[in-house]
Amino acid sequence: MKNEDLLAFTGNPLDRMAVRRVDEHWLQEQVGATGTIHLGFLADRPLLLVDDPLGTRPYSISMDWVREPVFLGRNDQDDLMFASLITEGTPETDFGPNVKAIDLRSLAIQGILPPPVLGILAQARTLLHWHATHRFCSKCGNRSEIREGGYKRVCRTCQSEHFPRTDPVSIMLVTRGDLCLLGRQSRFAPGMYSALAGFIEPGETIEDAARREVFEEAGIRIGSVHYHSSQPWPFPANLMIGVIAEALTEEIVVDYTELEDARWFHREEVRSMIRGTHPQGLAAPGPFAIASRLLKSFVDQDVAATVS
Ligand SMILES: [Zn+2]
């Protein structure tokens, strides 16, 4: 797939070398090896080289800054990549005049980096965030240690193993013939409507979660649910699972604790929202987000063709 067809954070090209990374001795050697790339993060923001003739790209920090590196994998050029969290309070100016720490959401919205590069940064951010917030064993409360390049922590005291989390979110485009259901939350930009979404709870299938969320938020009963596509969403560890959900009922009952509004939109109205030509100035989410992909499929009437 070409970069322009990819959603932000998708198309991560790294070989994660899951078999190799369990070898702690090998990993330790690679950390200091010539050619190894070390990405740096200031809190949740990656360091980038900007204003460079070769374009904006991730900045490789020197070994002085490497601390508890997590292993990301091997890139197309055979370079191994790690990521480290820079000591809190370090100013970005310590890395040079052309190095900036920019948050991933801004990078995705502005389309500054290709989706596969954003995908690598998403992997790094999610892993680093998990380690920064899970330093102690949830079973006995004692300190745990990083293992297997960051894909596991082991408690020093009780030997419990802990694994990085990924939180699945179902994002539903509810359709009814030429209509689709969109809602808006108060935190959205003025006039923006999007697909409904919610966390998948323990013991639920993706389909169960989609049906429950749509009924809770908008009072609509759902029949069939088809998988469409997915997107890593590293804020901090979500996986957005996009589905097309077929409505069985039409009367909307909005849950105002979750939504400011929800209503049916005709296919043509959605088309004008995507194009930015809606007469009342209503808008759809930007092309970086999976909701835009779901809406585009609906507008192009290829929803059935993309179900897999
Ligand atoms: Zn423990």
Give a written overview of the molecule.
- The protein has 308 residues and is of the alpha+beta class.
- It folds into two domains: 3-133, Nucleoside Triphosphate Pyrophosphohydrolase (Alpha-Beta Complex); 167-302, Nucleoside Triphosphate Pyrophosphohydrolase.
- The protein has seven helices and 15 strands.
- The protein has helices at residues 24-31, 104-110, 115-133, 206-218, 267-275, 290-299, 303-306; strands at residues 37-42, 45-49, 57-58, 70-74, 80-85, 99-101, 144-147, 152-155, 161-162, 167-176, 179-184, 196-199, 222-233, 238-247, 261-266.
- Strands 1, 2, 3, 4, 5 and 6 form a six-stranded mixed sheet that branches. Strands 10, 11, 12, 13, 14 and 15 form a six-stranded mixed sheet that branches.
- A hairpin with a 7-residue loop joins strand 2 and strand 3.
- The longest helix is centred in the middle third of the chain and has 19 residues, at 115-133.
- The chain is globular and about 60 Å long.
- 35% of the residues are buried.
- The model is unreliable at 304-308 (pLDDT under 50).
- The site of zinc ion has 8 residues, from loops.
